[in-house]
Write a structure and sequence with these properties.
With about 200 residues, the protein is an alpha/beta fold. It is built from seven helices and eight strands; from the N terminus they run E-H-E-E-H-E-E-H-E-H-H-E-E-H-H. The N and C termini lie far apart (about 50 Å).
Length: about 200
């Protein structure tokens, strides 16, 4: 039986470099929409990343690719909030801005297990937990994988798990394949692959 909906607006937030956006990103967004009863899910490409070891592709390209990747997914909005903000991109700042836009909304921050394990290194992470429920994508464990993320005991009520199929797809691998002139469809969708080709992205790494 489907749980009764409340009148509170439920907004998902999924941030990332999206350099490029790929099939696993879309699968995670679809899982969140299916399981969290979201009114909308805002995909937020990173602006100036404080934690990336490499230089990101130009923001307009990543924004355009995200728009192409999620074009067919209902209730998804590509939000340039971090790209439009000067200085380093912090999730906390993004959530604060969204809370000002929609003060009565309930926010659900979507992330993978690797991000969840690093959450305590994020800028003012306890405040992030106050502003949003953390929704962690849980994939099937295969031999040799890291153990599953375990929510901190003091904050268990602020975490949810999202079930999704194992999808061994990474943007790092996709960029390497493109630099080696290998085909990347269906790891990325055809419109994204065409954009990458048309704009000569990732030709070297």
């Amino acid at each position: 039986m489907t749980p009764a909906r409340t009148t509170t607006r439920r907004i998902g937030v999924f941030g990332g470099a999206f350099d490029p956006p790929h099939a696993a990103h879309v699968a995670l967004v679809q899982a969140a929409l299916d399981n969290l009863q979201l009114d909308e899910l805002r995909v937020v490409p990173t602006g100036q990343a404080w934690h990336k070891a490499w230089s990101l592709s130009p923001a307009p390209d990543r924004l355009a690719m995200a728009q192409l990747a999620f074009a067919e997914v209902p209730r998804v909005v590509i939000d340039p909030i971090e790209i439009n903000r000067a200085g380093p991109s912090y999730t906390l700042d993004t959530l604060h801005e969204m809370k000002i836009r929609w003060p009565e909304a309930e926010f659900f921050l979507i992330m993978g297990e690797d991000q969840a394990r690093a959450l305590t290194t994020w800028h003012d992470w306890p405040e992030i937990l106050r502003l949003a429920i953390i929704c962690v994508a849980e994939r099937e464990i295969t031999t040799g994988e890291s153990p599953r993320f375990i929510a901190p005991k003091l904050h268990k009520s602020r975490f949810k798990r999202l079930q999704m199929p194992a999808m061994p797809v990474s943007a790092t691998d996709i960029r390497a394949r493109i630099a080696a002139h290998q085909r990347v469809v269906p790891l990325v969708f055809e419109p994204v692959a065409r954009y990458i080709d048309d704009h000569n992205l990732y030709q070297t790494i």
